[in-house]
Amino acid sequence: MPKSKRDKKVSLTQTKKKGLEFKQKIIEDVQTCCDKYKHIFLFSVHNMRNTHLKEVRQSWSGSRFYFGKNKVMALALGRTQEDEYKDNLHKLSNQLRGQSGLLFTNKSKKEVLSYFDNYRVADFARSGNVCQQTVMLDEGPIPEFSHSMEPQLRQLGLPTCLQKGVVTLLKNHTVCEQGNILTPEQARILKLFGYKMAEFFVTIEGMWSSNGKWEAIADRPEPIVPPKVTIKEMKQMKMGWKMMRKRKQAMRKGRDISRLSAGLFVNKLFGYKMAEFFVTIEGMWSSNGKWEAIADRPEPIVPPKVTIKAKPRDEADEDGMEDDEEEEASDEEGT
């Protein structure tokens, strides 16, 4: 059937396209920063995460980051020696490739390299990343997962089954091998087990100074990564999963989840009991018709500051398990 001429798409959005004016503003801002700051550092971002990059921006509040379209930034700096904004800026603009950006700052080269060499944040690997390690799973029970998770784990390729209601791995399993491309299923398995393989970090590629000098910076030292790791059962992770499940159950029931906050989890993890159960007597009525209001009773002295000392792991885990069982029993009684 021929297309009707009256069939036209009408956009109802109120947003305006970022056209030529937006690009011209970026060019003006970049050139203004070239006049304002002493140094321009060319950096590359690896395993990009917006949250981590936002933390870096906040740490360098006195400086200016530009992380956008490389062609627009290169146009602002000048692509050739004839149209460059300042001396030797064309050498900097020719290095803008991939996930690169510009850091305008008055801090010295030593301060910048020291900060970015030590700034590495572990994060979950995504599908398409190259595996940095060979990750293994040991045969045996996986109590950190509920029984309802077993079909999902099996769909992801794990040889699992339910034994007495506990998810169990039937044999040793290799999640991924070093050098291979990570698949969506493998990335999901690593995230379920809480293993962060990827690292967000920033490398400094070069530096331009206001005197017109361009300096390429050699490769920085990288941390040593073990080629093979085995994910073992962690009791702390088990407690963490229980706390997450309780939070979800409380949210479904519309209950207050403030008592299941991160602070409570830390106190529980270290076996520290901050709250006290007590009953106060407010008044008394006698059979002779006399009513007597009872004044506030003296309260125990609570130290304003305490230090939690190390506790044997077995005792702490037993205490945590007992508390979990008590809370689960109280939840069942409430329902």
Task: Describe it.
The chain has 3 domains: 118 residues, Alpha-Beta Plaits, CATH 3.30.70.1730; 62 residues, Ribosomal protein L10, N-terminal fragment, domain II (Molybdopterin biosynthesis moea protein, domain 2); 71 residues, no CATH class. 34% of the residues lie in helices and 19% in strands. It contains 10 helices and 14 strands. Strands 1, 2, 3, 4, 10 and 11 form a 6-stranded antiparallel beta sheet that branches. β13 and β14 form a beta hairpin. The radius of gyration is 30 Å and the shape is extended. The N and C termini lie far apart (60 Å). Associates with the pre-60S ribosomal particle. Interacts with MINAS-60 (product of an alternative open reading frame of RBM10). It is found in: Cytoplasm; Nucleus, Nucleolus.
CATH architecture of the largest domain: 2-Layer Sandwich
- State the helicity in percent bands: 25-40%
CATH superfamily descriptor of the largest domain: Ribosomal protein L10, N-terminal RNA-binding domain
How would you classify the helix and strand content by structural class? alpha+beta
Tally of strands: 14
The 3D shape can be described as extended
User: End-to-end span in angstroms?
Assistant: 60 Å
> What is the residue-mean pLDDT, rounded to a whole number?
79
Q: So how many helices?
A: 10
Write the layout of secondary structure elements.
Blueprint: H1 20-36, E1 39-46, H2 50-59, E2 64-66, H3 70-77, H4 89-93, E3 100-105, H5 109-118, E4 120-123, E5 134-137, E6 140-141, H6 150-155, E7 160-163, E8 166-169, E9 173-176, H7 184-192, E10 198-209, E11 214-216, E12 228-231, H8 235-252, H9 262-269, E13 283-285, E14 291-293, H10 313-334
Parallel strand pairs: 5-12
Antiparallel strand pairs: 1-3, 1-10, 2-3, 4-10, 5-9, 6-8, 7-8, 10-11, 13-14
Helix pairs in contact: 1-3, 8-10
